[in-house]
Amino acid sequence: MPAKKVPAARLTCAEVMKELEKLGSAATRKVYAKHCAGEPTFGVQFGQLKGLLKRIGVDHELALLLWESGNFDARNLAMKIADPTRATAAELDRFAAADRGRMCGGYAAMLAAEGRHGQALAKKWLAAKDAPRRASGWLLVGQLATHDESLADEWFLAHLATIEKAIHAAPNALREPMNMAVIQIGGRNAALRKAATAAAKRIGKVEVDHGDTACKTPDAVEYIDKTWERAGTKFASPAAQERAREPQRLRC
């Protein structure tokens, strides 16, 4: 009879923080600073976080402890090991309010879209006074377009109309997530592809100041077409293709 596999010992918050510190580098911290990561930051590459993710798996209690550390790398890892089925609305609201790095700006929205609070939080965040939560609100609209099959097209059409009216006058921090919402709405189904493409054409070029980075703002019309090309005939839509994959917050 084969011996039973002994489960790996659960890592403590202190142990994970030591691992993150060892993995950090000054060069990566410099890159992250350009993306508004702020301090404290060890400078751990996202690929290295995947190694820790494999070792830890899902550990919601540890995720909350890592988040409370305030460390940029620890918070990124926290969003990967958190359990979307256990995340409360209050926790997700706290994550979104503190969001500060453009590279991982969608993690709170991704986590919310995988759980049960997505639609309610989208409404709350879009009405918030602070820019981080409003940005997370638009990111969440895009994530819901991909993940929540229960929402009616009318819900997304209303948000498309708001984006079309407001995007050019919106604060810089909101224009990129609004543009991404248009793209993801355009990948939900054929009818919304047509509506999002028409809206994107009327909107035209979206200007976003990415600071001292190599980031570029995607052309929504072109990007919507590319997502449908990638979906091909195997999937009913780009959203269906994405739902068949590992969640984006675990891949990136």
Mean pLDDT: 92
Q: What separation lies between the terminal Cα atoms?
A: 40 Å
Please report which band the strand proportion falls in: under 5%, 5-15%, 15-25%, 25-35%, 35-45% or over 45%: under 5%
Query: What is the number of beta strands?
Result: 0
- Indicate how many domains the architecture comprises: 2
Shape: globular
Oligomeric description of these chains: single chain
Number of helices: 15
User: Helical residue percent?
Assistant: 55-70%
**Low-pLDDT segments:** 1-7
Computed CA radius of gyration, to the nearest angstrom: 19 Å
Structural class: mainly alpha
Major sheet description: none
SSE order, as H and E?
Answer: HHHHHHHHHHHHHHH
The gist of it:
The chain is mainly alpha-helical and 252 residues long. The protein has 15 helices and no strands. It has helices at residues 13-23, 26-34, 46-56, 60-68, 72-81, 89-97, 107-114, 118-126, 131-147, 153-166, 172-185, 190-203, 220-231, 238-243, 248-251.
SSE layout:
Blueprint: H1 13-23, H2 26-34, H3 46-56, H4 60-68, H5 72-81, H6 89-97, H7 107-114, H8 118-126, H9 131-147, H10 153-166, H11 172-185, H12 190-203, H13 220-231, H14 238-243, H15 248-251
